[in-house]
Amino acid sequence: MLDKLKQIADRSEQRLAQVSSIDEINELKVKILGRKGEITQLLRGLKDLNAQERVSVGKIANELKARLEDTINRRTEEIKNQELQLRLEKEKVDITLPGLPWQRGGKHPLTLVNEEIRDIFIGMGFSVAEGPEIESDYYNFEALNIPRDHPAREMQDSFYISDDILLRTHTSPVQVRTMEKLAPQTPVKIIVPGRVYRRDDDATHSPMFNQVEGLVIDKNITFGHLKGTLMLFVHKIFGEDVKVRYRPSFFPFTEPSVEMDISCVNCKGTGCRVCSHTGWLEILGAGMVNPRVLQYGGYDPEEVTGFAFGMGVERIAMLKYGINDLRLFFDNDKRFLKQF
Amino acid sequence: MGVSIKWLKQYVDFNWSAEELAHRLTMAGIAVEGVNREDDDYILDLDLTPNRGDCLGMINLAREVAALSGSSLQLPTVMVQENKENISKLVKVEIEAPELCQRYAARLIKNVKIKESPQWMQEALIHSGIRPINNIVDVTNYVMLECNQPLHAFDYRLLGSKILVRRAHPGEKFTTLDEVERQLDEDMLVITDGSRPVALAGVMGGLNTEIHDATVDVLLESAWFLGPNIRRTSRKVGLRSDSSMRFEKGTDINGVIYAANRAAMLIQQLAEGEVAAGICDVYPDPRKALQVTLRPQRVNYLLGAEISPAAIRSYLERLQFAVKDNKGSLAVDIPSYRPDIEMEVDLIEEVARLHGYDKIEPGLPGGETIPGGLTRYQRFRDEIKNIAAQSLNEVVNYSFISEENFDHLLLPPESPLRKVVKVANPLSEEQGVMRTLLLPGLLQNISTNLARKNENLAFFELASVFHPSPQGLPIEKLKLGGIVCGHHDLNWTKQRIEMDFFYLKGIVENLLWHLGLDQCEFAVAHDVSYHPGRSAVLRYFGDEIGIIGELHPLVLLNYGIKQPSCAFELDIEKLYTHRRTRLRVDRIARYPAVERDIAVVLNHKVTAAEALAVIRDAEKELLKDVVVFDIYTGAQVAEGYKSVAFKMTFQSLDRTLTENEINSSVSRILERLQQDVKAELR
Q1: Are residues B134 and B218 in the same domain?
Q2: Which of A117, A158, A161, A232 to substitute to test the interface with B, most B CBs within 10 Å?
Q3: What is the pLDDT of residues B619-657, one digit of tens each?
Q4: Digit-coded pLDDT (tens) for A186-215
């Protein structure tokens, strides 16, 4: 009986080693260890043995049974694992195929640059102020120290709606509007993004474009602060290695006035087509707020001083993205837009 | 303006190369755009700011160079040898409009010989961009370039009894030197000879008294005209001359005599003329010299610099400003050739300019710090852009459009959208009016892109539209507009997603959901620009916030678009008003939800929204959610009807629902559907 038992055990081990599916294993398990299984059947003969033999055979039989159960469990695990591997192999996809169709959109480059400029100044404690795109002559010119027939009006050929109403030629009117609202409160620290309009349309001028204006008013604001603030801005937007220079300029609403140049971001200042071989790029206009403008805004120029600056968003976007044609911004060609 | 360095060196000596000079001037606010070589000379291309019109004169520019380089300025000597005959007997000048002409001086030079001017003068003029004509005219131009004082020479023998400076008569006609007849009006100033105009003051002389080969006696005009008036006249007649350009920017009223004498001397030398004694100078109200007080501490206060009072004084003196000490302040006499300097800050700029902007230390403002950042409204707009940009490309269109668009959009004549803010002086009719809606730009974007074979388009724009207002400034409204056309880009999944009405509606619903306006109602629209069966107005509890729909085929045709396109336009301020400001969460039920599907046959006219409202109303307590999951028309459904399938989810917060409860709910719902919308159970 012992021999038979061993035979069954050996045969079972061999069969277990060959099975390749969970179903087969389960089948085998029933065949060997089940109620009507081979071992159970064989052990029915135990009752014919004497007590001593019964004990020793029973013990061995139990050991064999335990061993087979172990093997069955082990093989089950192995096969489960194999089946899983097989399934995973089968489920393999070409991961280089594109993802599910999702029609991507995107923001306009002018929005992106506007947000970047804005965030830099917000980081310095600025708020964002806004005003109408159609303005009165008073806010657009008069209150900015540009009376009628002032030659500076030549600098900004305007689209008129009526004698006294026009499309704003710059975002500067919001300076005065903000001052009127806040005076005599200090500090004033605003930037003003927005669309502006000038009667000009050629390769380098668009009748509509975007500006960001800035205004700081407080006690003890100096020209040095203007330089420091704008330098920080330029370093954040174009990188720390950009060099800066300041040239005297003229804006009716600032005095002293300054034009800020940066070393050409394209050629690093050695001279190229982008900077007309000068190594420098005109990037923004600024100055100390003209005392007359402070007065228009309701501030006493002896009590407070301030600085203001303005820049063209298109210009900065062109430099940042390497865009060589202003008209691309307003052409709205899908091939251009989808790059952002 | 071109400036000959050779010529400049006659007045100031410096050792800088042309490039160095250009750089120094640029860094001092006299922008040099370029340097060109011309024979043995260099020509600087100046780009002057409007306040520095004085530098249109060589002597004034030389004064700048002298101040920058520290060398001295050498003014040309003026020595006029006069005849015995006094001008007062020969010339009478009368100013009838002193508000426009504050000074008028004349000299008379007799017996001139008209010929070519010498080579050096012709060269100087050519290098400055002025064509030589004859010795007399060339002298007037030469002295103008030198002194920034425009001069005019009349043929004295062609003039009448006197010089009378007056406003032109309405409708008066006058032919200028360029042989164009000009129509004048009362706002224009003319020089007359007592009976007829002989010059359009400050702009151009007249053909009637032009210097010609047979001219014998010359009357030389040197005057001061009011800049703004010259600017207006010059614009009105469409004539901008070297003279008008200078008067516009302001000339030196006290330089009038010097220039007249300088020119008289040159005419004497180059045309062998005889200069009548004296100068006829009408200057009824001599200008008082302007004195401006400068506080040295104010200079440093404003600049954030530490420039010593002595240095400040020396910068001003280098510019030849007379400076006197006055109790710690400086009393500065402003020379009349610098009309741009009117107040203390102007002098501070002069100091800063000569000191060098680059020498002022940069710093950051101290003082009270305030939190910056965006307002709620600004953040709200940002959020809208962020959501829209997930599936649409942002465009930027011009704010002005052509009025023709309203016809293209089939708008009736009485449409409020046709009430526009007109641009008085547009560049073209294409940009004639301010847009009242974003749609025209978006349609144009589709049309342009399709023409370039860019297919499958999805755009949005966030921008203002404009409406006239009875008073004050026009009304500006911020709008969000979007448009789609085509389908999702081709892909391997065999899914072809059409960008149709429901696609766009999905985008809009997603946006509304994020903004907390998911209870927005879509009702049938009656907008002529849209497909009558495929458009909806959006209402938030009765308030109309926008429109969405497929565009009317005729509208598409008008824009040359041969594919269906769908658009929407929403009012941002209304979205902001209705936005969700506070979110409260629903309790999450711990008892199981049960789903039931029903399909009913409905008349075509019954909308999904109507049926859903009936269902929700029939079971307010246990119905958690209901969606339409199938719509079928065709075989087995009668013509004019549709089969609609709803999936309903029932759930209670406090118990597990019984089969009976649900069954009775469902039958109640079906009953109500039958009653209210004549539904039949399939």
Answers
A1: yes
A2: A161
A3: 999 999 999 999 999 888 999 999 999 999 999 999 999
A4: 999 999 999 999 999 998 899 999 999 999
Predicted pLDDT of residue A103: 80
Same domain (yes/no): B635, B598: yes
- So what's the pLDDT on residue A154? 65
Q: Which fold has domain A109-337?
A: BirA Bifunctional Protein; domain 2 (3.30.930)
| A255:B348 CB<8 A | yes
Token duo for residue B271: 């045309």
Residue range of the domain that includes B60: 2-69
Phi/psi of residue B672, each to 5°?
-65, -35
Q: Does A295 touch chain B (CB under 8 A)?
A: no
User: What is the average per-residue pLDDT within B307-322?
Assistant: 94
- What pLDDT, in 10s, does the model give residues A11-28? 888 888 888 888 888 888
- Report yes or no on B243 lying in a domain: yes
| Residue B628 placed within a domain | yes
B599 forms beta bridges with: B645
- From the list A97, A128, A291, the residue facing B343 with the nearest CB is A291
How far apart are alpha carbons A311 and A114 in whole angstroms?
Answer: 11
CB contact under 8 Å between B349 and A155, yes or no, is no
Say yes or no for a CB contact (<8 Å) between A162 and B424: yes
